[in-house]
Structures
1.
Amino acid sequence: MSDKDTRSGVRIEPPERLLMGPGPSNPDPAVLRAMSQNMVGHLDPYFLEVMDRTMEMLRAVFRTTNHHTIPMSGTGTSGLEMIMLNLIEPGDDVVVAVIGYFGQRLAEMATRAGARVRVLEAPFGEIVEPERFAEELRNRPAKLVALVHAETSTGAEQPITEVAALARDHGALVAVDCVTSLGGMPVEVDAWGVDAAGSCSQKCLGAPPGLGPVTFGPRAIEAVGKRRSKPSTWYMDLGLLFKYWGETGADKQRAFHHTAPVSSIFAFHEALRLVLAEGLESRWQRHRDAHKALVDGLQKLGLTLFTPEHHRLPMLNVINIPDGVDDARVRGALLERGIEIAGGFGPLQGKTWRVGLMGMNADPAKIQRLIGALREVLA
Amino acid sequence: MSDKDTRSGVRIEPPERLLMGPGPSNPDPAVLRAMSQNMVGHLDPYFLEVMDRTMEMLRAVFRTTNHHTIPMSGTGTSGLEMIMLNLIEPGDDVVVAVIGYFGQRLAEMATRAGARVRVLEAPFGEIVEPERFAEELRNRPAKLVALVHAETSTGAEQPITEVAALARDHGALVAVDCVTSLGGMPVEVDAWGVDAAGSCSQKCLGAPPGLGPVTFGPRAIEAVGKRRSKPSTWYMDLGLLFKYWGETGADKQRAFHHTAPVSSIFAFHEALRLVLAEGLESRWQRHRDAHKALVDGLQKLGLTLFTPEHHRLPMLNVINIPDGVDDARVRGALLERGIEIAGGFGPLQGKTWRVGLMGMNADPAKIQRLIGALREVLA
């Protein structure tokens, strides 16, 4: 391509979409406005204040007092890999629960970090019972137990409390992927005894994609401190990152590590403000109410959910595609009506749809719109 | 912090800054507008078109036909580490030129990737002569030669052409950090025979920070294909990333890898459009002209540049702080006037300032404003 070919070029004019897939959800207009504010430097006194408040609000959202609580400068996936690459050294024993695609991904990351990985698997839709973790750790200890709280590929909630307690009893750290759950259902990092957790910006928190919120508790920090070797990554090295984000609460000296994504952090700051202004409990309730409204609406259309009711997520609904209905045609027809839903993942491809009710979109009027459109399209 | 403490919360209201540090520079208002457009999904047909056009425009900016040319979903640093972690396997021999902080960083990344690193060092302000690379490679071959084109900590340009040619002759790949140079001075990936290059979004390209543009040529792709082991990173794995970005030009099938930072890519797309609308040659000339205007202005104030003239960068100017002048006071007083410049790096801290003329800020009126403010503050 020569310069000339793009001299006029194409401008960004995205269509309006109601985003009812697995995220991104639609950000509040105030979040998009915050993102397009004046640029400032990544060491500007104003930006350092924004960083402090972002950490403070993120702690409130994670329900933790962990100092080491930041948005990683990459998407949610980067935050999870940051956890793995900092907590794991080559040769470490790691137990990973795999109840769907995102559990497989954690296991793959742990393997690449050099761990000897033992997988506790459950069929898609099911969860791993706590007793299986206990048995595995009794048979052989592990440095880390990693699991996905809200499995986006199957719509299943893997309960954390009991697993975290028994992992602790066996001297293992607990790392949790709460990419889909954070901001939309209870995530209690401190009360549950979770040592490290990672999420994303673009689902129930309602910011654009691009940041990977993470938190590390004292036991995790201790483990990182005891490493015999440096992590293979410089970009995601926890110690280096905290020379920029602040090694202690009192120490405001910031050392350059990388140029923070200033605008994305502006947007994230505003999204966190809105989450806490609503109140976490109210927000969780709103996501539960939205889920009920969706299930009611689906029932009237004769549609059923794939995931067993007792561990169904509120914000990510996996719907069985009725026999004889063409997956791609339905999703295409919905998109023509301005509504995005997602197809199934892996073995569930072509057999299920995934409908997200996240952030602003956990809303009765939007669910009515979706149900109305589905009624038309399926008729 | 309880939810209640932030129920009202603090809104994002950044001050206006003229950003004449090492980046971010001030983005064009059109870029910030693009970033705050409607959110769409990362697999939306509209977004897939944006991805294609982004790759196409980025190739034009890198002056390459490399298919593997994308913005990595992380800051410029992530793009450089992605290059290192994909090209290097444990035990590989790597030669790194270190003429300042960012060269040291490349060497550290290569070491963490498992390489046996040999460093060719030059004092801050100087460059490494091509003959030293030739000598090093004659003594012992290497898989990769890595070097920084525009060293942001010293203001020095390390010429690439000759080094790339002789590395090739010795069977080594060449990876270049062009974080500061891309869009502000000639970077000719194909003509120079560079195998991999990484830059950033927030300097001479004029987008917000948050993306790491990278390009990989055929020899680099071949080397990645011959790896005996997977990279330690899943997030930055080139092969996995290209299942999403498109394995070949014709194959439009995109597989989910991570949720792309949609808004940041909107902004980057608009920034690239503006770069190519101006024309790369015109843009390089504008940066050269700005540099001359700055040097003239500084001369009138009795200020001199640290970096020897024959390898001085246009967009990053390292200025000697006159004896008896307080570094922090001057930068503070400029910031009060709404102008950001940066302090010196490492051994140059307290001894130099760094003034960036990048993107929109390579502009005579803005340079006049800076010189005027400096005159006041130094008086």
Note: Chain B touches chain A through 90 residues (CB under 8 Å).
2.
Amino acid sequence: MTEVRVGILGLGTVGLGVARILIEQQGLMAKRLGKTLKLVAAADRDLNRDFGLDLSGVTLYDDAADLVKADDVDLVVELIGGYEPARTFVATAIEHGKHVVTANKALVAKHGEELFKLAAEKNVALGFEAAVAGGIPCLKALREGVAANNIESVYAILNGTCNFILTKMENEGADYADVLKEAQELGYAEADPTFDVEGIDTAHKLSILAAMAYGSEIKFDEVYTEGISKIGAADIEAVHELGYRIKLLGIAKPHHGQVEMRVHPTLVPLSSQIAQVSDSYNAVMLSGDFVEHTVYIGRGAGERPTASAVVADIMDIARVFPDGVAYLAPVMGYMADERKPLETLPMADVQSEYYLRIMAQDKPGVIARVTSILADHQISLEGMQQKEHDTGEVVPVIMLTYETTEGNLQAAMSRITALTAVEDEVLILRKESFNT
Amino acid sequence: MTEVRVGILGLGTVGLGVARILIEQQGLMAKRLGKTLKLVAAADRDLNRDFGLDLSGVTLYDDAADLVKADDVDLVVELIGGYEPARTFVATAIEHGKHVVTANKALVAKHGEELFKLAAEKNVALGFEAAVAGGIPCLKALREGVAANNIESVYAILNGTCNFILTKMENEGADYADVLKEAQELGYAEADPTFDVEGIDTAHKLSILAAMAYGSEIKFDEVYTEGISKIGAADIEAVHELGYRIKLLGIAKPHHGQVEMRVHPTLVPLSSQIAQVSDSYNAVMLSGDFVEHTVYIGRGAGERPTASAVVADIMDIARVFPDGVAYLAPVMGYMADERKPLETLPMADVQSEYYLRIMAQDKPGVIARVTSILADHQISLEGMQQKEHDTGEVVPVIMLTYETTEGNLQAAMSRITALTAVEDEVLILRKESFNT
């Protein structure tokens, strides 16, 4: 039986998960593939640990730079994470004619284009299903499952930490800082949570999905990105009363040669499928001109789900090993010479509905001034809410708008925040209806 | 550019949808494939119609038997439906060396094994993504996306007509017969709805999923099958009060060399993801030992979603055309010689929780007799409910059981229905928790 010899860079949680599958499910995968996947090598800076796995027969390297050049390795799995040295190791492996599978969304979002070219030159495969939405085979669904469609939109919950925090804030009425602390203690959030909670991780993943959906190049730096750290327990409760839930969404849509890409907390209807996706689950909703709406839900992170996606990529490559790489679906869903560096739609031109929370003094004429400014900028209100209170207080006024452009909204907001009767920043959240 | 020449059998709604994609999205697909998909032929018994599509350049046959032998066709799409003559046409196409894509679940469920062998002999590909859950690429997810996993369970909503009827019954408090009539008038249900509402269509699809999940042969005839025609508006309301919703589920699980397969109305928790799947949407929940739970949701039927899945199969085959069929994932997810004719778990051994609606005379001792019989058969109650009423009436008593075997339950039920104080049949519904 043909053997595919696998080497793993990084024996952290996901690396050990991949090793575990390769060892424990070797028989199952041989039945599915007609080939044997064999773990032959692994690299980690700390080899003096109990890995909880029998790695006898596996060559262990304390320097990944040696593994990526090893003659007896056909396929390298990169699970180090981050930009460097991961980029160098992956590039070196490719230059040595090895296929590569990675779970590294930062690497693909930032250096993907360069690595795709290199892999094409060397006629090797590059897989990164695990980089987007963990265990969910959503890249395969997008690249192959709905490939007959013009993709009309991508809406996705792509960060398990944020979804866990938002779910817990809602269920317990707890504040952001308290839930983050608990998530850190449980190991669900990093000590420095910036990448997760500020939406950067979601933007990495969204930029990959958008490029694959619309045949464009990956432009991570151009994704509009807001995180969840400004959301309070009161906001979650207020939107719930209006029939919505707050999710950190990545959104990508095509616009006649431009691509809209944005990541921000978003009001979604309680009755929508995406609103039901709780805790650390991820969801990807792909809509196409023939398939209509499809939604893919699963664990977005974790040793075992992520390892499942890594090994699915290994199996796809093993299936065409050693001579059939050209028969794989193209890495980004379009033939390389058909991919275009499409422009990113300026945020000012993005259309959305909005939820506004304005802290206003309860004086005659204030609401009239605010609504008149909105009208000046062609912004229509779907609804407005003001709780009972004592006269003269500063009270939150909540407004829901119909669709308008971000440019219009920001122009109106700068005039509204300048009103002396309006205190603090206006909280601006975007709102989606989906029509599903 | 390499051309793949496609012929369609049956220009009904799905056939015209496939033709429309092949014509209108030819450019898009060429960008994704590096090959051209060309609609060259179509067969239909009634060619004297306005197809609403420009079919100039397409050879039209009024006898499908001619198309399947045509020299200028590389790939035949079978959209006639039913067992015969579809089976003969597909077999003839394969014998003439043509690849085949079909949306025909009845055909695959009943004659799949024979057709797989024939296709292997002739070295051609056979695709049927559209046969299960319409537009949702769930077979690809199962065969490739979660292929590193031992599949632990499949739970699926596979029939859009039933899901539409159950959703409407719940939303409107309407009775089954009225909603069915409306669905028929709207074209959502067939004039003879038996295949849909009695669960046979779901059983066709489930038998395919089960065989692919567990490496067994397709055994449609052995699927335990119950439909939705016995469900009343009162049942839907009663289970809703208990925190559940009724869905027609297909369920398949592995049991050490045996496979459990069953289709029946099922109580699912209102908070579960599958409970949110409404109207004609389908959902497939695949759980694996590494990936945990994944859920795939989308349109289960309709011209355009089904056509999307058909063309995804055509694209998979086109990608390896003309010489790379061996590089495709095996048709049923396992190498042919690794597939086993696993036994079906006898229904008496299936474990489930139950919802029982017993029409009992309100006399002293009746409930005690019923619960004592349940206890005799080791059946524990999770809860019991009896509405207020006048003494002496016949009243519905609702009982929820913990997990027990179907054998135990049926033994208890035959004793309970024999009680003179129990009138009518006991309504037995199964209940699932999922733990998601």
Note: The radius of gyration of chain B is 24 Å.
